[in-house]
Each structure stands twice: as structure tokens, then as C-alpha cells.
Write a structure and sequence with these properties.
By secondary structure, this protein is mainly alpha-helical. The protein contains 7 helices and no strands. It has helices at residues 4-37, 46-52, 54-82, 87-124, 129-169, 174-195, 204-226. α2 (46-52) crosses α4 (87-124). It is elongated, with a radius of gyration of 20 Å.
Length: 235
Amino acid sequence: MINKKGEKTMTTDKKTARIVGSLFIIATAASLASSPFLAPFSASNYLVDVSANQNQVLVGALVAFIAAVASASIAISLYPTLRKYDETLALAAVGFRLTEGVLYIVGIVSLLSLLKVSKEFVNAGAPNSSYFQTLGASLLAGYHWVNYVGAVVAFGLGALMYYYIFYQTRLVPRWLSGWGLVAATLIIAASVLVMFNVIGLFSAFQAVLILPIAVQEMALAVWLIVRGFAISPPS
């Protein structure tokens, strides 16, 4: 028989699961949605294209900011549930995913700074093009390193923490948490390989290593929204 306290706990955990599942979807959807808006940064003549598409870039930065906040909020929302099973790992997950969110925001600031450089470049009529090109290339490289290496490693480490708790406690099916453990390891490996120039940024091999976590997170999101956690008393 479940007492009122138990019923309240189950209701709270069900709400938490739905919130976390929704945050996974929001973070992924916002991240994907921001890409088309930020396309001018990938153009060969980006110093001109970025300034010419200022409003588009600003919308992209705003959507990317939403993705950053949602990403950081996942571990924060999970913490009250996971701390009952392993407070240290739950707190570590929060720390890594907060770091991820901060790094994404740093990347957004780099893009907004590059927008300013682009406007100055166009307004100046490019008399000192080498100066603007060097500054622009530095800001863009910083964005790529922060966004696709630093933030991704932080994300992967945070994910490993809560997937390990999921696996040990069976809060979600072990096939799903085990998939998460493997996929998080692969995405960390992808970033490390990019860091040491073993594979190229945006290469096909990097995409292959990233795909498992992308699919797994959507599967987990649906599971949490529909089924929730399989709550058991903490040992």
C-alpha cells in the first residue's frame, strides 16, 4: 500500500521526468533550429554575409541561447531525483552541464562579437582587410573550439554521470541507459579526436560518432514523458 507521502513522491518524480524529457527535446530542437540562422558564419565571405544578415544572425543567437539554457537545465532538473541515489554524481552532472551551458553562451558571445567585426569591416570599406580577417578568423575558431569541443566534452561527462546512475538504479531501462553510456563516450571521443586533429571538425566520421547520442536522447525524452522513472527506494 502506498501512503500519501509515497504518492506525492511518485507524482513529483513523474513531473520531473516529463520536465526533463521536454528539456531534452527543447535543447535538441533549439540547437538544430539555430543552425540555418547562423549559416552566414559558414559562408566563404562571412565578414560580408554576417553583416548583411544581421537580424537573421541575432535570431540564431537567441535560439542558440535557448538551447544552452535548456541543456544546463536538464541536470538541474534531474538533481532532486538523482541525489537520492548518488548525490556526488548527481552534483557532478549538474556541474558539467552548467559548464556546457556557460561554454555555449561564450560561443554565442563570440558570434555576436564577430557580427560587430563584420559591420566594422563593411563600414570601413576593407582598407585593412588583413586585420579584420585575422580577428574574424580568431573569433570564429574560438567559437568552434568552445562550441564543438569544450562544451561537447562537458556535455558528455555530465551525461555519463546521470546515465551511470540510471543504469545502476534502473530508473530507466538498462538498454536505454547503457546506450546512453556508450553514446556519451563516443561523443567525448569525437571531440578529443577533433582536438588532436585526428579527424576534422564537421567530418563524416565525427557525425557518425555523434549520431548515437542524438538518437538516444530523443528516445530517452519520449520514454521519460510517456513512462517516467521506474522509482525504487534508494539503497
